[in-house]
Design goal:
With 359 residues, the chain is an alpha+beta fold. Helices cover 58% and strands 13% of the residues. β4 and β5 form a beta hairpin. α7 packs antiparallel against α8.
């Protein structure tokens, strides 16, 4: 057994006492209980001892990762977490010096490697959890604002509709149309925002048994008004009486967005085809439009939030495809585009017909 290894093995308590005295009142409050302050550090010191015994440094440290997560929960800064490991390294070499030891290069390298690995793992877990919490709070705040806007907007839309039906609006038709279109766009943006916030929050899916044919009929009826206004025919082809196990609200939203986008960007008089097949544990939905095809470089960009198709109808918000892809991802599925230059596009939504049970 090397002399440094012997010092750390027999003087473990001394090294930790040095560390506590070093950090208390500087990196951490003096009022913090000793056990909470030390936390995972004694176990991390044991990892260093084991590495010295083996003569090889570990590539990762679960102890340090847990330590980083604990420090985040206690409200410590990231700088303090890093400095804790530096202080432990100093205390190890101080204990060796007081014992009259000269630490050789190999042992020094093992200690330094362990400390660097510990810092990396602690910081990574700290930052990962911190960023996840920031995202969660941001999503909740965004959803709250959208929800609070939806209620007064719904009242305004209802009042506007009643005034219009009762012919109580004393303005010209163009002004009425502008107000109505503005209210409609605000409503769509808020609904998209709420849906996106729900997906972004990572909440558990609410699965149910869904009849595919019934689902497609609902989508067709919901898009028929816009399609008729542009002389576009929606053609639905479904095989048999298949059912899938999925979150009905998300799947309806995804398909509705795909079909409405297809209607919106297709040339007047075109046919929008909606096809589905269920086989091999997957349900595949295909929505083919008559947009004439996409330009080079547009295919992947189409899924980005707020993306618009150059030279096309710019009246929407470009959120439909982004939300559809999020819905697919939430189910462990996928959404992709097959470009048909000169003809149109096929949007292919593929989702498992039942939740994964794992290996």
């Amino acid at each position: 057994m090397s002399q440094l290894l012997q010092v750390l093995t027999t003087g473990r308590a001394d090294v930790m006492q040095r560390w506590v005295e070093r950090v208390r009142g500087t990196l951490h409050p003096e009022s913090m209980p000793r056990l909470e302050l030390m936390d995972h550090l004694p176990l991390f010191l044991d990892e260093i001892v084991a590495a010295l015994a083996d003569g090889a440094s570990p590539e990762t440290s679960a102890t340090a990762a847990e330590h980083g997560l604990q420090r985040l929960g206690l409200g410590f800064s990231l700088d303090s977490v890093v400095r804790e490991y530096g202080a432990l390294c100093d205390c190890i070499f101080a204990a060796a010096q007081d014992a009259g030891l000269t630490v050789d290069y190999r042992e020094s390298q093992v200690v330094f490697d362990c400390v660097i690995t510990g810092i990396a793992n602690a910081v990574s877990e700290y930052a990962r959890q911190r960023d996840a919490e920031i995202q969660r709070q941001s999503t909740e705040h965004f959803a709250f604002i959208a929800h609070e806007l939806r209620n007064p907007l719904s009242s305004a839309m209802l009042g506007f509709t009643l005034l219009k039906e009762q012919q109580l609006l004393r303005v010209n038709e163009r002004t009425v149309a502008v107000v109505e279109r503005g209210l409609g766009r605000m409503h769509d943006l808020i609904e998209h925002s709420l849906q996106g916030a729900r997906l972004g929050s990572g909440i558990e899916l609410h699965r149910e048994r869904i009849e595919v044919r019934t689902l497609l009929d609902e989508i067709e009826v919901g898009s028929s008004g816009e399609a008729s206004a542009r002389n576009i025919r929606i053609e639905v082809v479904s095989e048999g009486d298949a059912e899938i196990d999925a979150d009905g609200r998300l799947i309806r939203s995804a398909l509705s967005n795909l079909v409405r986008n297809a209607v919106k960007f297709s040339h007047e008089g075109a046919v929008v085809s909606v096809r589905t097949r269920v086989a091999g544990g997957h349900a595949t939905f295909e929505v083919e439009d008559g947009c004439g095809g996409l330009a080079d470089g547009v295919v992947e960009a189409a899924f980005a939030p707020f993306a618009q198709f150059g030279g096309r109808d710019q009246s929407g918000f470009g959120l439909g495809l982004a939300i559809a892809r999020q819905a697919a991802d939430a189910h462990g599925g996928s959404l992709r585009i097959q470009n048909l230059p000169g003809k149109g596009c096929i949007f292919i939504l593929d989702v498992p017909t039942a939740p994964s049970t794992g290996a």
